[in-house]
């Protein structure tokens, strides 16, 4: 990776550029950089001789009509108030390198824009609100930012001009560098989505309250509970790519055996990056007893024939919608007798859970249905004393089932997380809601309360279920679930 010439942060770059313009101070260079500075002749040369690359006649992004409707709903909920929704800033990984940027869900949901430092502002107007999207404009050629700044366009790539952004997102665009001063001067009630942009929050520090800001974040979380047509389509895209990623993994299990779980992780990641934006969350590539660790993301263990592989992974689309799918696969292609016994119990529980997902049902129904089946099997196997009603009342099955049977899914893998309890887990299912159904049984390697043959076996089966007008649709039905079908599918892929 090459070194930029001047200070590490964009803020410092802009300050330096302003100083240079006003006072003609020399440009500061990065400590230990190889160039001592920039000659006047070079600086002048870099200002000219560049073609006009402005784009014209751009089509709006695919979800522009949907984001407009979402902003209208937000406007109606908070009339007369200024609403500020930041995208967030780059985060340092180490020294002068940053993590890949991912825009805040709230900002992406309302704008469709995914670039760092953006801010959506809804200002009160007579007929509701006037929306403005504040963005960094094209890099400045006159002051040298485009080639001297570590975030200049010659270093990190071209960004859209403000005019191009207006065409793409259907929102008037302004320079985000002017926004903090505007916010400091603003009067009247203001709400901001916190946690993404410290500079924006600092500009509003005397105008906002934690309680009012929390209400804004809760509203935006609950707004995502029911997916529109565009969102349902994006979730299906994410799942379809995820299905292909699982197929990729099955085809290379022999190479994973020769290396480690990391080979599985890397194989799925390739599919996610080729077809989507990224993985939606850290892939769980848990072989053998690691399958009993719910969020095993170290992925540094061995992959052995005769063991199970619990693969929990999802592709994130370019619009930030993610799949969340789990399959528990026999590494050698065939379940052993005890593995099949446990797997089939989880499959039966998942079938009961999926059947309970329908409009008008309580959100909790699918969890209760799946847990009842698992409790019945645990009693039947003699691992816990019945009757089943007692087991469920006391939650005794949780020693081996551990987690809830699912969650909402969307732009976050655990979507709508700050919604009120009464609108989420205590709510009634509606068409357009999307949730996972993912029961599991986990027998820890050191669990002396179960026979030795159970120990170290973990099984989870997870699918992404969209509530429809007349029931539900399994978005991930392209991956087999029944044990005999899984074996046949694996055999066909490795033939």
From TrEMBL:
<dbReference type="Pfam" id="PF00557">
    <property type="entry name" value="Peptidase_M24"/>
</dbReference>
<keyword id="KW-0031">Aminopeptidase</keyword>
<dbReference type="InterPro" id="IPR036005">
    <property type="entry name" value="Creatinase/aminopeptidase-like"/>
</dbReference>
<keyword id="KW-0378">Hydrolase</keyword>
<feature type="compositionally biased region" description="Acidic residues">
    <location>
        <begin position="13"/>
        <end position="25"/>
    </location>
</feature>
<dbReference type="InterPro" id="IPR029149">
    <property type="entry name" value="Creatin/AminoP/Spt16_N"/>
</dbReference>
<feature type="region of interest" description="Disordered">
    <location>
        <begin position="1"/>
        <end position="36"/>
    </location>
</feature>
<keyword id="KW-0464">Manganese</keyword>
<keyword id="KW-0645">Protease</keyword>
<dbReference type="InterPro" id="IPR001131">
    <property type="entry name" value="Peptidase_M24B_aminopep-P_CS"/>
</dbReference>
<dbReference type="InterPro" id="IPR052433">
    <property type="entry name" value="X-Pro_dipept-like"/>
</dbReference>
<protein>
    <recommendedName>
        <fullName>Xaa-Pro aminopeptidase</fullName>
        <ecNumber>3.4.11.9</ecNumber>
    </recommendedName>
</protein>
<dbReference type="Pfam" id="PF05195">
    <property type="entry name" value="AMP_N"/>
</dbReference>
<dbReference type="InterPro" id="IPR007865">
    <property type="entry name" value="Aminopep_P_N"/>
</dbReference>
<dbReference type="GO" id="GO:0004177">
    <property type="term" value="F:aminopeptidase activity"/>
</dbReference>
<comment type="similarity">
    <text>Belongs to the peptidase M24B family.</text>
</comment>
<keyword id="KW-0479">Metal-binding</keyword>
<feature type="domain" description="Aminopeptidase P N-terminal">
    <location>
        <begin position="61"/>
        <end position="201"/>
    </location>
</feature>
<dbReference type="InterPro" id="IPR000994">
    <property type="entry name" value="Pept_M24"/>
</dbReference>
